Amino acid sequence: MAVAEAVKYPKAVLFDLDGTLLDSAPDMVAAIDAMRASRGRPPMALAALRPHVSKGGLAMIRAAFPDIDDDERKRWLPEFLDHYERELGRHSELFDGVGAMLSALEAGGCVWGIVTNKPEYLARQIMPVLGWQERCAVLIGGDTLAERKPHPLPLLVAAQRIGVAPQDCIYVGDDERDIIAARAAGMPSVVALWGYRLDEDNPVAWQGDVMIDLPSQLIAADAWPATR
């Protein structure tokens, strides 16, 4: 009788960072609260800011200061990043199951890396805090290249740097921009439903290849979408 071939992990997996691997919202709200305090405003509820985290710094400032116009928010962005750098890694933690999932990928011979819209200098600072500086095969930030997600360039460059064809790589993210970038790069995608989303977001409409509720589900090799 023929023996069924064992299901294997993909050759490589690229992840978004905030809202996918790392629950960084507590660090973000600490930075926002420092800005609010300096302007005589009370702290912001974590639950109110959390859905905006994957949308980026300007979106978080907009949520925290809805009465301020966009031009002023842009001027405040460096201040937010300075506060965030001081809070980096102090309050955040991995989503439940992420550590075990990454260990399973490594044990199965899968290479993994990170493609985030967070500025690269901030993303690199969190790597030693998490013990990932030797484990993460590639790190692309939002300012590493001329384009950022939803443009496919960061994903394509990340795949090139780890020596894997885009079609053999999978991208995992919690925001629509992640799935748009993956599709444009020719990469199968996983929608991380455990991440940050606004009430009006509809992950089904993003048309990712699979939707996963919890990181621990990705320990099962057959939960991943097929590559070529």
How does this model look, in words?
With 228 residues, the protein is of the alpha/beta class. The protein has two domains: 12-22 and 94-223, Rossmann fold; 25-87. 37% of the residues lie in helices and 12% in strands. It is built from eight helices and eight strands, in the order E-E-H-H-H-H-E-H-E-H-E-H-E-H-E-E. The chain has a six-stranded parallel beta sheet, sandwiched between helices. Strand 4, helix 6 (120-130) and strand 5 form a beta-alpha-beta unit. It is globular, with a radius of gyration of 18 Å. The chain starts with 11 loop residues before the first strand and ends in a 16-residue tail after the last strand. The model is unreliable at 1-5 (pLDDT under 50).
List the topology elements.
Elements: E1 12-15, E2 22-23, H1 25-38, H2 46-49, H3 57-64, H4 70-87, E3 93-94, H5 98-107, E4 111-115, H6 120-130, E5 139-140, H7 153-162, E6 169-173, H8 176-185, E7 189-192, E8 210-212
Helix pairs in contact: 1-4, 3-4
Provide keyphrases for this structure.
single chain, 228 residues, alpha/beta, Rossmann fold, 2 domains, six-stranded parallel beta sheet, two-stranded antiparallel sheet, 8 strands
